[in-house]
């Protein structure tokens, strides 16, 4: 008994101490969050752009950043990154930007917006230097704006062209005796191909070769312009496999030289007119964001920017989803707010539930009747993502945005044989009508049920096309010719009428202001930023588990696992969704 009390009181003391420390940490976090003090970046600052970090549509919160001294600040959002680069152009304390370009965790649309901001920054005559031990093609797609590009002497530059790989599950499903039972509308609607084919259909191979070719041609044209090279020549370097070493990249003028890390530092100190071993005032963008003010909060008129980022789902959702209940309220809130003079809907979504897409479409249509609504497309705004965008007053996209994919499908798997032959489970039922159990996964669909599902899918597809026809002011026959589930890049979307202008989120906001006839305004961003406690506890378990999986398996394998989960969520729910997750190597 004496031992029991000893352990009990020791545990109680530990709990009390832990609770006190926890409260102190939260108080410190809250005090830090409310503090108006801004860090000083000092003179001769060199901003560090680490492309290995993804700049997402909204700020990636780090509530513990203020308690650390190692520069672990919040990662700015993509739009904030663009605005920070614009601010740095005029900031006398900033002398240049140093790009860490080994890899690029950002999508093609996001990369395009960052690249344009860097090109504009260069007009200030400040320097931009890029370095990587090895530089990937996606890293180089941004790094090629630099005046000087260097790699490690034993490193290199990836230069082999783009590829996009799809994983097909039909063979596995056949062995497991699982029949997916797929209903779809649109000959290009290849979202379900991995479940019903063992390789690409000709339609899908055609559309993939076109959009992938568009992305690669854009990459080559931008490189040729930035490096003063011939496009045909640099294409041939990939076709003939001539870039195998770092020295090869120097020989063909794709990079400027081979340097170790210390030599890069000497390069930068020289540009700063400092002594060769002087300490360089490197500032990461997360820290720089804390030192500047990007918005004029004294202005009363607002432009709402609503970030629709992730899969479109019905009801309520997570931070990584565009949930119909959440977003109809956000759009309605912006519509009813008299101080909001225009709405910019930033869409970065491959689509999802067709019904949820229509719920959001309705709110966009209502808002459009009262104030200008402009859409800005990010990396992807396809299928349901295009559904919610099509009725805006004006649609902006990046050249490399993936859009279109106007089509619908449904999946109703039949696992009867799997249950019976693989694990020895059988089922039986009693029902009051022949269709009372329609859509059950433990039996095959009957011929009438297949007709019902196909009719429903065709009806949703017709509604989707009619929404596009109304919003884009095109007749149904023309919409059908560019629909069929086909995927387009932003540049081709412009040519076929799915997009109004090629431009960034900044361009869309300026257009919204012009349409609303306001010159001075502040931005009101939705979803609104969470408070400190919400940051700590929202999606805590999910974030930890995802980080653990990614650390063990890698980002591509994590994406595959997430795709399996998404396929499961699509069962029985008509989908307006992009054919596949776009992974380009």
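^ structure tokens above, recovered residues below v
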């Amino acid at each position: 008994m004496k031992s029991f009390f000893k352990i009990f009181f020791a545990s109680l003391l530990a709990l009390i101490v832990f609770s006190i420390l926890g409260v102190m940490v939260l108080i410190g976090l809250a005090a830090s969050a409310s503090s108006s003090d801004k860090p000083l970046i000092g003179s001769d600052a060199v901003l560090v752009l680490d492309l290995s970090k993804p700049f997402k549509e909204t700020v990636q919160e780090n509530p513990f950043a203020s308690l650390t001294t190692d520069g672990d600040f919040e990662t700015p959002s993509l739009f904030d990154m663009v605005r920070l680069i614009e601010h740095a152009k005029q900031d006398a304390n900033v002398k240049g930007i140093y790009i860490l370009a080994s890899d690029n965790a950002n999508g093609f649309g996001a990369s395009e917006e960052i690249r344009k901001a860097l090109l504009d920054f260069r007009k200030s005559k400040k320097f931009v230097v890029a370095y990587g031990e090895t530089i990937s093609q996606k890293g180089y797609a941004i790094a090629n704006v630099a005046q000087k590009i260097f790699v490690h002497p034993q490193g290199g530059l990836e230069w082999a062209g783009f590829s996009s790989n799809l994983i097909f599950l039909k063979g596995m499903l056949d062995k497991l005796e699982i029949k997916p039972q797929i209903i779809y509308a649109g000959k290009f609607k290849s979202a379900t191909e991995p479940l019903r084919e063992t390789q690409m259909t000709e339609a899908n191979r055609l559309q993939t070769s076109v959009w992938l070719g568009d992305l690669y041609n854009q990459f080559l044209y931008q490189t040729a312009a930035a490096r003063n090279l011939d496009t045909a020549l640099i294409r041939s370097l990939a076709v003939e496999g001539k870039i195998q070493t770092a020295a090869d990249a120097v020989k063909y003028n794709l990079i400027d030289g081979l340097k170790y890390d210390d030599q890069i530092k000497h390069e930068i100190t020289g540009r700063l007119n400092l002594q060769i071993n002087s300490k360089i005032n490197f500032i990461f963008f997360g820290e720089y964001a804390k030192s500047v003010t990007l918005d004029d909060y004294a202005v009363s008129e607002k432009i709402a920017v609503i970030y629709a980022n992730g899969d479109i789902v019905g009801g309520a959702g997570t931070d990584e989803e565009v949930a119909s209940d959440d977003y109809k309220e956000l759009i309605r809130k912006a519509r009813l707010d008299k101080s909001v003079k225009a709405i910019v809907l930033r869409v970065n979504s491959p689509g999802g539930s067709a019904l949820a897409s229509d719920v959001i479409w309705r709110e966009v249509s209502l808002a459009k009747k009262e104030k200008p609504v402009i859409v800005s497309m990010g990396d992807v705004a396809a299928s349901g993502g295009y559904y919610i965008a099509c009725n805006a007053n004006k649609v902006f996209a990046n050249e490399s945005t993936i859009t279109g994919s106007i089509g619908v499908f449904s999946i109703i798997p039949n696992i009867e044989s799997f249950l019976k032959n693989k694990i020895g489970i059988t089922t039986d039922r009693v029902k009051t009508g022949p269709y009372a159990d329609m859509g059950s996964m433990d039996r095959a669909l009957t011929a009438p049920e297949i007709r019902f599902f196909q009719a429903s899918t065709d009806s949703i597809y017709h509604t989707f096309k009619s929404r596009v026809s109304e919003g884009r002011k095109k007749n149904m026959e023309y919409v059908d010719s560019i629909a069929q589930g086909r995927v387009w890049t932003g540049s081709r979307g412009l040519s076929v009428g799915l997009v109004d202008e090629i431009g960034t989120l900044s361009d869309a906001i300026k257009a919204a202001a012009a349409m609303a006839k306001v010159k001075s305004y502040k931005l009101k961003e939705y979803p609104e930023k969470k408070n400190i406690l919400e940051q700590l506890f929202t999606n805590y378990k999910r974030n930890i588990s995802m980080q653990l999986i990614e650390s063990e398996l890698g980002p591509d394998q994590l994406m595959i696992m997430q795709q399996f989960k998404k396929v499961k969520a699509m069962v029985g729910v008509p989908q307006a969704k992009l054919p596949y997750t776009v992974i380009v190597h």
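Residues 65-71 have pLDDT under 50 and may be disordered.
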